[in-house]
């Protein structure tokens, strides 16, 4: 029995010691959420504000054009800067055999996908772990709160409940906001990849 009590005390000490790190992580998640909000707004205003994704018309205009003319068409198009850079880089290898050009195209596509995955990964991580740490921050202070309730200590009880509610809200709000940002960026980057792949296929077919 004494061993069981000792193990329970040790477990209680560990769980209570995790409260401060949990609150610290939640504050970092909230800070990261604010940064992600600023990042997606900046991307929408500075990059996507000028996006004109007229890929069918652009593909049609490339038929029968030389490499230099294609570079000019890409530069003058309404694509994103990183899309233009990727397409222009592919055009630089127009003298290589077709198999090598297709290999380079796959590598460029993988690099573009990696760019999107890195941006989405941050918000996706926050949306997943936010509720977990919010739940931890809710449950940890409830132990002392229940003990205080049994002892009639309403001050400690109210403090524990306040911490529990605050951590729950922090975890959920960071997760909800980052979930929305993740969905927005997933839609953006999926459309970007479809456009980029269509343009690359056109370039690989036209440049011989």
Shape: elongated
Query: What is the quaternary state of this protein?
Result: single chain
**In percent, how helical is the residue content?**
over 70%
Tally of individual domains: 1
What are the main properties of this structure?
mainly alpha; single chain; 208 residues; 8 helices; 85% helix
List the helices and strands and how they pair.
Layout: H1 2-17, H2 19-46, H3 55-61, H4 67-76, H5 81-91, H6 98-139, H7 142-151, H8 154-206
Helix pairs in contact: 2-6, 2-8, 4-5, 5-6, 5-8, 6-8, 7-8
3D architecture notes:
- The protein is mainly α and 208 residues long.
- It has one domain (22-42, 52-206).
- 85% of the residues lie in helices and 0% in strands.
- The chain has eight helices and no strands.
- The protein has helices spanning 2-17, 19-46, 55-61, 67-76, 81-91, 98-139, 142-151, 154-206.
- α2 (19-46) runs parallel beside α8 (154-206), α6 packs antiparallel against α8 (154-206) and α7 (142-151) runs antiparallel to α8.
- It starts with a helix and ends with a helix.
- The mean pLDDT is 86.
């Amino acid at each position: 029995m004494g061993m069981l009590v000792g193990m329970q005390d040790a477990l209680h000490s560990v769980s209570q010691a995790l409260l401060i790190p949990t609150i610290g992580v939640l504050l970092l998640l909230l800070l990261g959420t604010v940064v992600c909000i600023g990042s997606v707004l900046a991307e929408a205003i500075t990059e996507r504000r000028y996006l004109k994704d007229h890929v069918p018309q652009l593909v049609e205009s490339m038929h029968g054009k030389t490499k230099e003319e294609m570079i000019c068409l890409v530069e003058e198009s309404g694509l994103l800067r990183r899309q233009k850079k990727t397409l222009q880089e592919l055009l630089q290898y127009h003298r290589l055999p077709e198999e090598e050009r297709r290999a380079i195209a796959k590598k460029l596509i993988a690099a573009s996908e990696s760019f999107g995955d890195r941006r989405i990964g941050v918000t996706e991580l926050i949306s997943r772990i936010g509720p977990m740490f919010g739940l931890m921050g809710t449950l940890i202070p409830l132990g002392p709160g229940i003990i205080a309730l049994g002892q009639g200590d309403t001050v400690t009880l109210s403090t524990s409940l306040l911490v529990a509610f605050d951590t729950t809200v922090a975890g959920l709000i960071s997760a909800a906001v980052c979930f929305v940002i993740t969905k927005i960026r997933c839609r953006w980057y999926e459309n970007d990849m479809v456009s980029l792949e269509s343009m690359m296929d056109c370039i690989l077919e036209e440049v011989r």
